[in-house]
Amino acid sequence: MNTTNRQSGFSLLETIVSFLILGFVSVTLMSLILYASKGYIMVRSNIDTAGKVQVAMDRIRLELENMQSLTSLATGVGANSLTFVDHNGVSRTLDLDPGAATNLRLGGNLLLDGVTSLVLARSCGNQDGYSGGANDLASVTVAITVTGGIPTYTLSAYPRSIMNCP
After folding, report:
1. Measuring CA to CA, which residue among 133, 137, 148, 145 is closest to residue 64?
2. pTM
3. Checking CA distances to 26, which of 12, 75, 129, 135 falls within 20 to 30 Å?
4. Is the pLDDT of residue 98 over 70?
């Protein structure tokens, strides 16, 4: 009787190759999951920041559209501020907090944090139709840049009242 002693299973080389392939696939998959989670966190943070900026810009637009007069507009490095009289006759200032230069304030109250740049401008023109009235305030432009790689947000507010351009 001729019997061969044959063992079934994998050879050592096959086992090592399969473990190497499994390790490579595992590392690739974990890297993919890590980058996807970092991307999700970054997008989520940008969405939150964009929402805060949108709320602040809506508030600024509302205040500037309803202002009764523009008292002053200071521009330049470290001097961006806008002072106006609101619809209740109260003087309010839009500026960066000198104590924490990344805090945007409206009337002394924190409106938005993480601001890296505030640019203010105004345009004048003949708004009431009278000749010689080219010194009426036509619009106020506010541009805000915040930390985190978000682009600059810009709004132009058109006051409802006709007022002199300072």
Report:
1. 137
2. 0.73
3. 12
4. yes
